[in-house]
């Protein structure tokens, strides 16, 4: 099942460094096709427990029949509440493999891919209120500019926003094709695929509040992990990776080092690795979607 739904990225690297206590309690916050969860379960003893989250209802169909395992249909931004009220004590490890699954990209009724027409949706949680079309049709010019500049680093963000506003004055933008037609005059001919990927990424981040979820998770992680507990995060673009890197190095997403009275830096995590772990050539050849992945691992002090 997992190979058609999603090929797990940096599977052994992310899990082997995470599981240091086979009897422990672990969270996989991004279940997807369950590839990481299955491998993580193989590392646990009979006493170990794994709780996995996914906010996409479709992912629940991949559940694993194992008495040590529980799948939760929820946003991982509520992981702390879950650990506090349902587990009751600190846990041993957290895994997060951020972003979307291949299944989500390949479904043409989800609107994630610019190569496939369909409703301009982009919600990972299909019960969430706002779709990409809602944002494109309802947000103000200033809000759209903010999204394209901050989440997509789009150079001609002003021209892009103006084209959207001019089109939606006459007809609502409902499908991927409607959107591409509306912005056609902004797409550089020499690098259209790259440009569209950046624009779609920016909208996807806004629709799913991806950076907000990650910030909440990072801020809560030191509170729910035991001393010696680990966090393993795989990210796929620089905005996410910057937040993870800063937090693991300094304890805040701005990356500002805080020092105590004696000049020692106060950080909740240490790491065995100075640099992120990235996929090797073999993995990238077998699974080109892994090429932008970066894995960072922190150990709670
Ligand atoms: C890259 S895929 C994970 C793939 C998985 N590791 C596997 O081996 O199949 C990311 C998954 O996380 C889910 N997801 C992303 N953000 C989430 C959030 N804030 N809360 C819960 N699930 C989330 C997505 O719906 C998607 O299924």
Describe the structure concisely.
This protein is of the alpha/beta class and 301 residues long. It has helices at residues 2-5, 11-16, 35-42, 79-87, 102-106, 132-138, 141-152, 157-170, 176-182, 192-208, 210-224, 238-250, 281-286; strands spanning 25-28, 49-54, 69-73, 91-97, 225-235, 269-270, 294-300.
Major sheet description: 7 strands, mixed
Number of separate helices: 13
Give the spatial strand order of the biggest sheet.
Answer: 3-2-1-4-5-7-6
Uncertain spans, ≥5 residues at pLDDT below 50?
Answer: none
What is the correct CATH architecture of the largest domain? 3-Layer(aba) Sandwich
* CATH level 1 name of the largest domain: Alpha Beta
Question: What Rg, in angstroms, do the CA atoms define?
Answer: 20 Å
Kindly estimate the percentage of residues that lie in beta strands according to DSSP. Answer: 5-15%
Portion of residues in helices? 40-55%
| Rounded mean pLDDT score | 96
What is the assigned CATH homologous superfamily of the largest domain? Vaccinia Virus protein VP39
- Summing up helix and strand content along with how strands pair, one would put the structural category as alpha/beta
Anisotropy-based shape: globular
